[in-house]
Design a protein that fits this description.
The complex is a heterodimer of chains A (486) and B (95). Chain A is of the alpha/beta class and 486 residues long. Chain A is built from 16 helices and eleven strands. Chain A has an eleven-stranded mixed β-sheet with strand order 1-3-2-4-6-5-10-11-9-7-8, sandwiched between helices. In chain A, helix 2 runs antiparallel to helix 3. In chain B, strands 1-2 form a two-stranded antiparallel sheet. Chain B is mainly alpha-helical. The chains are: A alpha/beta (486), B mainly alpha (95). Chains A and B meet through helix 10, helix 11, helix 12 and helix 13 of A and helix 1 and helix 2 of B.
């Protein structure tokens, strides 16, 4: 029999319902697993066993009283950029190393209301700026499939924890691929919902027109359960869209026969690895067997996605991160002469190299004389990228493409070459630019035994279609059932 | 070079960052590479294209002006690097 920490949320819900185990036992099992493998993987910034066991006890009371929901008692890891009241939340930055939020992010409030068990905060790239989790103030998370490799980023801890059995499910955030990329590299399932579907209230802001919170899970049914919990309007976030969402679990067993998937020509010229090509070919044949038609299409402006993103995101970041001034919270330098110098020293000490680089880049792009050539130009290219997708969705129900050009790469391989690191996100960034929902699911593994992620992209607010396609694919394949040999 | 040492100093001041000499050198080279990469955007014809600020239709959500409890002062001050009474303490701003 497999251990409790290896099971999915929906399997554990069944176990809890039948009283074969308590939430406290499940939580102990996961905490035990953390103790056993955390030294190797380093998924967490802060594990909080006291909080977790207290929440598990409360969940068991609810389970006994019959007031439990489908996620009550399930342990979850939260990315370190979502405020958890009374629990240190650092955004993996030195500037927030001792920050204890006085309030809960809306998504954290939803977890509490559902009776979920918060295990602690998962490691990430500092301020979610990175594709490898190497820029964390607390050190690099390692890929559970090969400890010499990066887990992907920026939600590397959230993905590694789920893959390694250190959490049943987790929350990540995705600004340019930060949920989908680590999900792909760690062999788990992750979705970036439509911009505006999940509240960003209490999420430490990086680039506000692109940031979106979403779940990382071991399979699509767990993803559907978490989407049910997370999607919804929140008056606390003025970009949250007021609308009704379906019960996503209703789409887990629907046939996909007759659907059309688009294959964007531009994406397939950028593959760096035959493993990725093989995974896409294999996915195509699975979907065709299920009655899905394929159409080739063109998204001509995708080539400009990275260039436009690395103007827009750092520009927004340079403005958002102005708040780290050593006044209201966070680090303050000890030695300075006057107010401006206090800001400059505080920020020089508190931020790491990638964050400084993006503040410099964004400040430059927004500075007088350069605004039109950079920010405004990028914002116009963003319109063209969005129109590309709109046209594409006239021909297909969803787009199939890779999540990344290659499987996970070595720790240190790209850290000193920003452009090479940025190019890792070539397939994920356009989705954020257009605000679309994008899902990463494990495809056929590489020859070397590493996970390779497929990506499915749907029109705005069509997460249900991704659930339907992903669930159908996972019924036909077993890649999502593989676990790293830790 | 697209970026001069003077520009790096100016941008660092605008961004309120004190940079060490070796950091300046490193960022100058890296920003230069990144901006050269961005040059590809010049190829795109964007005449008559509206800029896009965000993926959702922008509107101003309104609500009733109701009095609600806000964050207690002690909670708001709990993370302050320095405080005096119920205020954040900062160096003298006006000389």
């Amino acid at each position: 029999m497999s251990e409790l920490y290896e099971k999915t949320a929906w399997e554990l819900a069944e176990i809890l319902r039948k009283k074969q185990a308590s939430s406290a036992e499940i939580t102990q099992s996961v905490l035990g697993r953390i103790k056993a493998v955390e030294d190797k993987v380093r998924s967490y910034v802060t594990v909080n066993p006291d909080l977790a066991l207290e929440m598990a006890k409360e969940a068991d009371v609810r389970l006994a009283s019959g007031s439990a929901g489908p996620l009550t008692g399930i342990p979850i890891a939260v990315k370190d950029n979502m405020c958890v009241r009374g629990h240190r939340t650092t955004c993996a930055s030195g500037v927030l190393a001792n920050f204890v939020p006085p309030y809960d992010a809306t998504v954290v409030r939803l977890l509490r209301e559902a009776g979920m068990v918060i295990l602690g905060s998962a490691n990430m790239d500092e301020f979610a700026m990175g594709s490898s989790t190497e820029t964390s103030h607390w050190g690099t998370t390692r890929n559970p499939w090969d400890l010499e490799l990066i887990p992907g980023g920026s939600s590397g801890g959230s993905a590694a924890a789920v893959a390694a059995g250190e959490a049943i499910v987790s929350l990540g955030s995705d600004t340019g691929g930060s949920i989908r990329l680590p999900a792909a590299f760690c062999g788990v399932t992750g979705i970036k919902p439509t911009y505006g579907a999940v509240s960003r209230y209490g999420l430490v802001a990086y680039a506000s027109s692109l940031d979106q919170i979403g779940p990382i899970t071991r399979d699509v049914p767990d993803m559907a359960l978490l989407l049910n919990l997370l999607c919804g309007h929140d008056p606390g976030d003025s970009t949250s869209v007021p609308r009704e969402y379906p019960d996503f679990t209703d789409f887990l067993d629907l046939p996909i026969k007759g659907m059309t998937l688009g294959l964007p020509r531009e994406f397939f010229g950028k593959l760096e690895s035959p493993d990725v090509e093989r995974a896409i070919a294999e996915a195509r044949s699975v979907f065709e067997r299920l009655g899905v038609k394929f159409v080739e299409l063109s998204l001509p402006y995708l080539d400009y996605g990275i260039a436009a993103y690395y103007i827009i995101a750092p520009s927004e970041a340079s403005s958002n991160l102005a708040r780290y001034d050593g006044v209201k919270y966070g680090h303050r330098a000890e030695n300075f002469s006057g107010m401006i110098d206090m800001y400059c020293q505080t920020r020089a000490e508190g931020f790491g190299p990638e964050v400084k680089r993006r503040i410099m880049l964004g400040t430059y792009a927004l500075s007088s004389g350069y605004y039109d050539a950079y920010y405004l130009k990028a914002a116009k290219v963003r319109t063209l990228i969005t129109k590309d997708f709109k046209r594409a969705f006239e021909e297909c129900d969803a787009i199939l493409c890779p999540t990344a050009p290659s499987p996970a790469f070595k720790i240190g391989e790209k850290i000193d070459d920003p452009i090479q690191m940025y190019l890792t996100d070539v397939f994920t960034i356009p989705v954020n630019m257009a605000g679309l929902p994008g899902m990463a699911i494990p495809g056929r593994f590489s020859e070397g035994g590493l996970p390779v992620g497929l990506q499915l992209i749907a029109p705005h607010f069509e997460e249900a279609r991704l659930v339907q396609l992903g669930a159908a694919y996972q019924k036909e394949t077993d890649f999502h059932l593989k676990r790293p040999p830790l | 070079m697209k970026i001069t040492p003077e520009q790096v100093d100016y941008v660092a001041l605008l961004g309120r960052l004190t940079l060490e000499p070796e950091e300046k050198k490193k960022y100058m080279g890296q920003l230069d590479d990144i901006l050269k990469y961005m040059d590809m955007l010049a190829e795109v014809d964007t005449d008559n294209v509206e800029p896009m600020a965000g993926p959702v239709e922008l509107y101003t959500p309104l609500r009733e002006d109701e009095v609600k409890p806000s964050l207690p002062v002690e909670d708001a001050l709990a993370n302050a690097p320095a405080r005096t009474g119920t205020s954040f303490r900062v160096p003298k701003v006006i000389e």
